[in-house]
Every structure is written in structure tokens, then in C-alpha cells.
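Give me the fold.
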Amino acid sequence: MATIRPFHALRPLPANVDRVSAVPYDVVNTDEARALAAGNPLSFLHVSRAEIDLPASTDPYSDAVYSRALENFANLRASVPLTVDDQPAVYFYRLRMGNHQQTGLAACYSVDEYDRDLIKKHERTRRDKEDDRTRHISTLRAQTGPVFLTYRASRAIDSVADRVTSTPPLFDFEAVDKVRHTVWRVTGADMEALVEAYGELPCLYIADGHHRAASAARTRKYLAEKEPGTAHEEADWMLAVAFPDNQTQILPYNRVVKDLAGQTPEALLAELKRRFQLGEGEPDPKKKGEVSIYLAGRWYALRLKGQAGAADIGSTLDVSLLQEQLLSPLLKIGDSRTDKRIDFVGGIRGTGELEKLVKEGKAAVAFSMFPVGVDDLMRIADAGEIMPPKSTWFEPKLRDGLLIHLI
């Protein structure tokens, strides 16, 4: 079962929602966050990336940053760009980017079910990133950005979504990145029907936001240890938006390598032709098992070798095959998690970004990947496996500061 719980959302007023809500804290660095928030004192980046209001030399994990985040959060609440809904609700949240549209449900989801793997994971988390968001949540006593979940589509949930989203929304705005965000508040019988329908789902899957989810679980434990005997009911729940699998969009997570490990482009091409099926190609691979390679000013299409009888599902993914068959033996990339010679480029930046990096000399070769499917993600999570690093790029992104869960 999947348990959801309505909550009293802290949210912007409709008149200010486009100025308050912001990109997720973890998709921008400090300089990018500072530029996005420039001239906008209402931007939630002043809360989620509070180092932008401190000297440039400030350590983003210093005490001063969390103190400033709390101060900025309190100021937003006091000036009433943020208000608390007077009764608990859940919220349909629609994202529209170009021709793609997906509608999910924002609600509180069970930390107990996360701990028991009824909310399934496919990614390892880093302790330093967990530490940061755990401290941010526990300092503000608020979860300010949602976890992105997915589930196998349900007709019962779709039926309520169709009905509710035909009514006037609470929010409807286009962000600067041209993604449209539309939110409907759901109460009464429709809310009760959703609680029941989610209860029929066997499980949920984390699509994006493993560190947010892990930090929510750690915050609950931290508060229980810090204030024993005090009830922290809200900390038993984490803010998330769950989208049906047939609407969830995964873009490729592409790779660039800074040098050719001492080889010339001609020598690498000769070795690729010897080992693989290789020919002239387009920037975007057409199917699973194909990789487009940008080298010496031209695009090539390469066919990876299948891996029959693999011990685990993750090793059959294109990113794994590329690592084992090409990056490791030919470009000497050992551990792609730690090797400084490889970098990763989200599919939202397009293949033009890959060409640009190579032409500017910031990379010697680029690899455009075919995206991982949601079914692959679910099969890996069902098997209790971990996906290779930088396998999926989910787009469009949810906004921070749009719906906030106070704990």
C-alpha cells in the first residue's frame, strides 16, 4: 500500500508565485543561484541557497548559511508572500514543457514506508549531501522542496485527476525556463478518493530526490533524539509529488571526457571501428544500445555489444555497457563516480552543449546517450539494485518553495 496524508501547505500567494518559487536547490551552483535571484528579494533561492546573500568566500555548509536561510525564511513568512492553508489538502501539480505534460499529486508520504522500502530506491546517496539537507530541514522545521516519485499508473487516480484538473487552478504560471506550472487544491470527497486509491498501490518509486527523502528520514531521527518525549508527528511524513509512470519523462544523461588518454582522434576512431559497429551518425541515438559520439568535429553512431546472462539488470543499461566496453578500456576511466576526467551533461542542455564543450577544448570527446526507460528504473528498484551513476535526468523539474511542508 502507499499511504498519503493531506497537509496544511505553506505556499506563496497566487500574485507572487512566479517570483517566490525557484528551481530546485541542487540543479544550480552558487553563482547560478545568485544570478537567478538577482533583483528578486522574494526568490526562494534566498532560502534554499542562502549563501548567495553572504560574501562570495562563504562556505555553503557553514553555520552562517543555515542561520541566514532561517532568517530569510522567516522574513518571507512575515511579509506574507507565504501563507498557510487553513485546512489540510492534497494538490494536483501539472508540469508542461513544450509538447510534454505530466500531472502528479503533491501530498505527504510516509517516512515509515520509505524506511521499509515500500517507497523504493535506485540510487546511493552521499553523506555530505544528506548532512546539508538534514540540517536545512531541521533548522527551518520545513521541507521546502518535494521528492519526485513515480508509480504504475492507476485508472482510479487518473479519473480523479481528470475531474479536478478541469476546474480553475490555484496556481498557473510559466517560469523563466518556459516550463508551465499549474496546481489545483484538492479537498473533500476527491481528496478522500485519492487517499483510498493510493492505498491500493503496492509501492512507490523514487524517481528524483533520493537525498531529499533520505534527509527527511534522518530529520525525524534527529528530532526524536534531540527532543525525546516530544511528539513530532509531521516529521513522520515527507513532501513529495507522485507522477504516473506513463507520464514521467526521462532525458538522457550524456558524458564528456576531457582527453583521449594519450591517443589521437584517428587512433581512437580506428580502435572503435575494430571493436564496434561504427559509422557516420546523428547527434541523438535512435534506440537502446546505440550511442552517438562527437569526435574531431563529426558525429558517429556506435552500436554497443549486448550482455547476455548479466548478473544484474543495471549492468545491461547503455551507461553500464559504455563504461565497461569503451570508457574503461579505451579512455582509462576507472570509477566514473570519482574520475575527474569525465563529466556529465543533463539531456535538457541538448546535444549542442556537447558539441560546444568539445569545440571549446573543454572536452575531447562527447557521448550522447539513449535515455533509460521508466520500466528499467522500476525493474532495478524492484530487484533491490542500484543504478549506475548519472543514469537518468528527469525533466521538467518541480519548483522549490511552491508547496512547503512544515514539521
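The chain has two domains: 4-249+395-406, 253-370.
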